[in-house]
Backbone:
C-alpha cells in the first residue's frame, strides 16, 4: 500500500482552515448513534474523549490505572508551549513551527507541525477556562518561562506540576461527560487487541484487570492514545505500567509503525544508584533556565570528588568546565535535549563523571541564588546585604519556582540541593516514533486513529521541551474531533456494531490463547528477568549512540531473548484474578518484538538525526550528521517476525523552511 | 539490611484476609520502599508463591496510585512523600515493618494491598469541573486577570493527587480534605464562581453517599498528606457549603 499523508493543498498557513471548511460533518442528531473507543486517558486520550462526548458521540474510555487521572501525562513537570507572544519577545505561529521543525532535526511533517503551532494558543485559552491554575505574575497576567532549543519565552507552567494540572483539567472535562453518561469509563481495563471488520477498525478486545474477564467492545472508530514505548529500555522516566501494547496490536493488524528508533534521552534525570532500580526520575528541563551544568576541568578533582575527599563547592570557577556554555555559546545550558544529553555522555565517557558510577554531571544553582538574591535585595530595599542574606533571598525565589523538584531530589538522593549542586544524568524519557498517521491522525487501518505520544507525527527526530503536552492536547481537543467527523460522516446509517461476529470471535480466541499459554507455561524466569535483559540490550546498543555492529548484535540478541521468553517465562497465579504479573508478561512480550524492530529501524537509518545518533555519521566536532537521502519517514509494515517487516517511505518536503545544518552555537 | 515484613494478604473482596510474615535480606538503604517490595515479590515468584499485589505506577510521587499503610501511617514514616518516594534509609537493620492497605468502608479491598478508590472519582463526577465545552473560541487566557495570591492558593489546593491518604489516616474515614481541596481550587478562581453553589452542594452530597465520615478537626489528614494540602481547604469548603445552603 502506498503511503498517502493526505496533507491538504494550498499555502501552509491556510491548510488547516481550508480543510476544516471543506470536510464532512456529522449532524448532531446522528452523533448520538455513533460510538467511539478511546484507549488511554492521558492528555491526548482524556481531551479527545471529553471533546468527542461534548460533541455528542458515545465514548468508551479505557485506562489500565484505577482512575483516568493517573495517566502518566500527570508526571510532566516543566510546562506547555503556546505561540501567544504574551511576552512580546517576537514569538509567532511561524516561529513555533520553525523551532519545532528545526528542533526535530528536519524529520517531521511540515503541515502537521504548522497546525500544531496554530492551535497552541487555543489550548491555553481552553485550559484557563477549565480552571487550570497556571502561574501568574503580580499583575494577574499569565507568566512564561523559556525552554531548551528556542530563543523566546513561550512556556506556560503550573509550578513544576504542569502535566498534573493539565491532566486534571482534561479529567474534569471527562468527569462532566461521565456524569452525563456520554463517556462510559472502563478503569483497570487493558486493550489487548483491535478488531478489524471489512477492513475497518470496529472494536477492541479488553481484559478487566480486576476479574480477568475478557470483554468485547464495539465502536465505529477506535482511537489509540496509549502513550510512548520508553519502557522498552526497562529503566526510563515512564510509569511502571506504561507500555506499547495498544500501539503494537494495531501494528500487527495493519497499522504501520513509524520511526521506532527516534527516542528522546532526557538530559536532566537523577542518576541511577544500583541494580535494584525500578525506574528513573526526571528533573524538569526548566531547571536548566536557572541551573548551570558542569564537571571538573581536571581528572584529579574528579577522582577526589568520587572518593569523597573534595566537595563540588570547593572547586573555584576556574576549576570547572561549564561544557555546554563552552561548546554552545548562543544557547548555552538551554540547548535541545538530544544535544545536552550527548554532551553529558561525552564528558562522562571521557572520565569526568562525578559520582561512583561515573555517570553524573552537576547542575548548579549557586549563580541563580546570587542573581535572584541581589535582585530581591534591591526590591526589598536592603542595603549592603551580606552574601548569606543574598543567598537566602535567592533560594526563596528558586524554592517558589522549583520547590517540589528540589524536594523530590532531596528525598531520592538524600542530599540538599540548596547547599550542594544536583547530580544529573540522561535517561530515556519520550519516544518520537510511534504509529504512523496521516494528516487526519488516522493510521493505515481505516477508522483507527493514533494521537499524542502514541503516534509519530509532530516531533521528527527530537522533541523540544514543553511540546509533548502541547501535542497531546492539540490532538485531543482541536484536531481529532474535526478529522474523525469527516470519517464518521459515512457511518451515520451503519447502526450499532455487533460484537457477535466471526471477527470478534477470532480476536477474542487469539487473546485468550495467549493468556492461557503464559499462565500455563510454568517456566523458570520471572517477567522482570526478561524485561531487565531487554532493557540492557537496548541501552547498551540502541541508546544515546548507536553503530552498525551493535545494532546487528542487538537484533540477534533480542530475537534470541524473545524465543527464550516464550519457552521459559514464569507467570504465577491464574488468568481469572487480579494478576499484575500476567498483565506485565503480555506487555513485555510486545516490547520484545518492538525492540527488534527498533534496532532494525536504527540500522537502516544510516545518518544521525536528533535522538538517533549513529557513530559512523558525525561531523568533525562530534555533532549529528544528517544525510539528505534519509529525509523520509520510515513506516514499517508488519509481516510476521520483526525482521521481516517491510519498509515504506514517506518523503518529507520542506517548502516553507530552509533545511539547514542544525546549529545551536 | 535484613527486615521482617508483616503484610496483609487478601485473595479478593470476599476473602477475610490475614497478616503474613516474610523475611527480606540485603536491602539497600537507597532503595525506595516499592523497590524493596519488588525484591520480595521476585523472591516469592522464584519460590513458586503468589507475589503481593499493590498499586503503583509513576513511582515519582505524582500519580497517586500507591497506597500503603506502613507501621500505622499512610505512606509510611516520612513526611511529604508517597510510598513510592519513601526510602529504606528511614528504616534500620532488623526492623519489623507492618504493611496494610488503606482502610476505609468507602475503599473496599480488591486484593492484598490494592483498594478500590472509585468513590473519589464519583465525587468528582458530581461537580469537580467547570462546565465549559471545548472550542477554539473561549475568551483569551489573559482576558480575566487573576491575582497571583488567588492563583497560587488555587494551585496549592489543586496539587492533591487523590491518593486517599487523608481518608486512610482519619479516624472517621473522612474525605473532607480531598473534597475541600477540589472545592477550594474552583472557589478561588473567577472561572469557578458560576457553578459554585451547585458544585459544593453536589460534591458534599456525593461524599456522604459514598460513606465517608465527618471531620472532627484532628488535623491528622494534613500531617499525612503527601502534598501538604492544608486544613484551611476544609474550612473554605465549609464556608462555601454554608453560603450555598443559605442561598439554597
Residues:
Amino acid at each position: 500500500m502506498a503511503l498517502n499523508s493526505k496533507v491538504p493543498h494550498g499555502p501552509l498557513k491556510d491548510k488547516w482552515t481550508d480543510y476544516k471548511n471543506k470536510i464532512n460533518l456529522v449532524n448532531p442528531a446522528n452523533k448520538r448513534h455513533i460510538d467511539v473507543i478511546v484507549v488511554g486517558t492521558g492528555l491526548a486520550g482524556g481531551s479527545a474523549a471529553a471533546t468527542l462526548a461534548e460533541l455528542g458521540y458515545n465514548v468508551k474510555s479505557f485506562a489500565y490505572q484505577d482512575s483516568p487521572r493517573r495517566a502518566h501525562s500527570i508526571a510532566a513537570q516543566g510546562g506547555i508551549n503556546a505561540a501567544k507572544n504574551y511576552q512580546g519577545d517576537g514569538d509567532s505561529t511561524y516561529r513555533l513551527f520553525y523551532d519545532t521543525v528545526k528542533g526535530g532535526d528536519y524529520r517531521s511533517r511540515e503541515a502537521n507541525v504548522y497546525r500544531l503551532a496554530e492551535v497552541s494558543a487555543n489550548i491555553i485559552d481552553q485550559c484557563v477556562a477549565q480552571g487550570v491554575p497556571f502561574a501568574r505574575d503580580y499583575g494577574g497576567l499569565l507568566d512564561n518561562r523559556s525552554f531548551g532549543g528556542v530563543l523566546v519565552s513561550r512556556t506556560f507552567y503550573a509550578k513544576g506540576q504542569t502535566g498534573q494540572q493539565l491532566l486534571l483539567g482534561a479529567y474534569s472535562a471527562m468527569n462532566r461527560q461521565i456524569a452525563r453518561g456520554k463517556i462510559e469509563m472502563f478503569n483497570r481495563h487493558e486493550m489487548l487487541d483491535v478488531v478489524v471488520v471489512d477492513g475497518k477498525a470496529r472494536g477492541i478486545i479488553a481484559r478487566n484487570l480486576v476479574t480477568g474477564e475478557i470483554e468485547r467492545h464495539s465502536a465505529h472508530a477506535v482511537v489509540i492514545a496509549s502513550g510512548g514505548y520508553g519502557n522498552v529500555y526497562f529503566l526510563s522516566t515512564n510509569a511502571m505500567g506504561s507500555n506499547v501494547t495498544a500501539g503494537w496490536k494495531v501494528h500487527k493488524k495493519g497499522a504501520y509503525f513509524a520511526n521506532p528508533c527516534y527516542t528522546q534521552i532526557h538530559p536532566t534525570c537523577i542518576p541511577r544508584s544500583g541494580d535494584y532500580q525500578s525506574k528513573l526520575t526526571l528533573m524538569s528541563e526548566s531547571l536548566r533556565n536557572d541551573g548551570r551544568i558542569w564537571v571538573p576541568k581536571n581528572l584529579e578533582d574528579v577522582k577526589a570528588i568520587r572518593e569523597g575527599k573534595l566537595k563540588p563547592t570547593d572547586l573555584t570557577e576556574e576549576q570547572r568546565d561549564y561544557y555546554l556554555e563552552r561548546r554552545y555559546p548562543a544557547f548555552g545550558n538551554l540547548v535541545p535535549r538530544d544535544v545536552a544529553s550527548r554532551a553529558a555522555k561525552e564528558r562522562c565517557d571521557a572520565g569526568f563523571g562525578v559520582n561512583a558510577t561515573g555517570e553524573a554531571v552537576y547542575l548548579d544553582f549557586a549563580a541563580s541564588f546570587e542573581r535572584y538574591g541581589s535582585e530581591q535585595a534591591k526590591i526589598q530595599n536592603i542595603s549592603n546585604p551580606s552574601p548569606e542574606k543574598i543567598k537566602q533571598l535567592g533560594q526563596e525565589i528558586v524554592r517558589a519556582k522549583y520547590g517540589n523538584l528540589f524536594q523530590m531530589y532531596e528525598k531520592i538522593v538524600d542530599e540538599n540541593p540548596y547547599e550542594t549542586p544536583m547530580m544529573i544524568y540522561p535517561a530515556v524519557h519520550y519516544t518520537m516514533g510511534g504509529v504512523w498517521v496521516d494528516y487526519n491522525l488516522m493510521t493505515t487501518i481505516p477508522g483507527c486513529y493514533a494521537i499524542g505520544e502514541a503516534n509519530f507525527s509532530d516531533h521528527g527526530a527530537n522533541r523540544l521541551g514543553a511540546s509533548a503536552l502541547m501535542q497531546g492536547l492539540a490532538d485531543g481537543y482541536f484536531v481529532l474531533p474535526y478529522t474523525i467527523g469527516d470519517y464518521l460522516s459515512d457511518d451515520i446509517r451503519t447502526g450499532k456494531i455487533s460484537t457477535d461476529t466471526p471477527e470478534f470471535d477470532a480476536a477474542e480466541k487469539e487473546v485468550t490463547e495467549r493468556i492461557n499459554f503464559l499462565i500455563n507455561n510454568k517456566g523458570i524466569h520471572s517477567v522482570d528477568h526478561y524485561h531487565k535483559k531487554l532493557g540492557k540490550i537496548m541501552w547498551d546498543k540502541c541508546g544515546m549512540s548507536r553503530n552498525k555492529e551493535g545494532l546487528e548484535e542487538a537484533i540477534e540478541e533480542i530475537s534470541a531473548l524473545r524465543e527464550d521468553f516464550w519457552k521459559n517465562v514464569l507467570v504465577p497465579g491464574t488468568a481469572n484474578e487480579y494478576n499484575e504479573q500476567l498483565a506485565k508478561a503480555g506487555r513485555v512480550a510486545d516490547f520484545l518484538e518492538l525492540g527488534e524492530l527498533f534496532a532494525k529501524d536504527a540500522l537502516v537509518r544510516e545518518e544521525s538525526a536528533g535522538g538517533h545518533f549513529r557513530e559512523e555519521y558525525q561531523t568533525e566536532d562530534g555533532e549529528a550528521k544528517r544525510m539528505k537521502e534519509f529525509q523520509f519517514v520510515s513506516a514499517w509494515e508488519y509481516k510476521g517476525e520483526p525482521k521481516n517487516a517491510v519498509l515504506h517511505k514517506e518523503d518529507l518536503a520542506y517548502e516553507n523552511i530552509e533545511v539547514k545544518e542544525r546549529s545551536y552555537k | 539490611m535484613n527486615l521482617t515484613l508483616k503484610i496483609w494478604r487478601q485473595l479478593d473482596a470476599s476473602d477475610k484476609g490475614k497478616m503474613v510474615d516474610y523475611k527480606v535480606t540485603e536491602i539497600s538503604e537507597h532503595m525506595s520502599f516499592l523497590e524493596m517490595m519488588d525484591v520480595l515479590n521476585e523472591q516469592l515468584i522464584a519460590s513458586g508463591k503468589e507475589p503481593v499485589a499493590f498499586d503503583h505506577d509513576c513511582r515519582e510521587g505524582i500519580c497517586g496510585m500507591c497506597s500503603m499503610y506502613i507501621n500505622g501511617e499512610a505512606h509510611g514514616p516520612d513526611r511529604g512523600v508517597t510510598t513510592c518516594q519513601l526510602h529504606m534509609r528511614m528504616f534500620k537493620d532488623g526492623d519489623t515493618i507492618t504493611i496494610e492497605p488503606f482502610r476505609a468502608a468507602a475503599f473496599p479491598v480488591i486484593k492484598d494491598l490494592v483498594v478500590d478508590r472509585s468513590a473519589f472519582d464519583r465525587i468528582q463526577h458530581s461537580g469537580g469541573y467547570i462546565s465549559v465545552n471545548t472550542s477554539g473560541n473561549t475568551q483569551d487566557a489573559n482576558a480575566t486577570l487573576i491575582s497571583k495570591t488567588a492563583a497560587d492558593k488555587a494551585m496549592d489546593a489543586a496539587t492533591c493527587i487523590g491518593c486517599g491518604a487523608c481518608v486512610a489516616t482519619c479516624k472517621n474515614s473522612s474525605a473532607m480534605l480531598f473534597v475541600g481541596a477540589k472545592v477550594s481550587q474552583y472557589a478561588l478562581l473567577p472561572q469557578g464562581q458560576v457553578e459554585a453553589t451547585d458544585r459544593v452542594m453536589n460534591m458534599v452530597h456525593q461524599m456522604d453517599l459514598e460513606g465517608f465520615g465527618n471531620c472532627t478537626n484532628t488535623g491528622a489528614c494534613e500531617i499525612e498528606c503527601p502534598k501538604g494540602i492544608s486544613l484551611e481547604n476544609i474550612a473554605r469548603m465549609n464556608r462555601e457549603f454554608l453560603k450555598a445552603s443559605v442561598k439554597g
Notes: The longest strand of chain A covers residues 422-431. The two ends of chain A are 42 Å apart (CA to CA). Chain A has a mean pLDDT of 96.
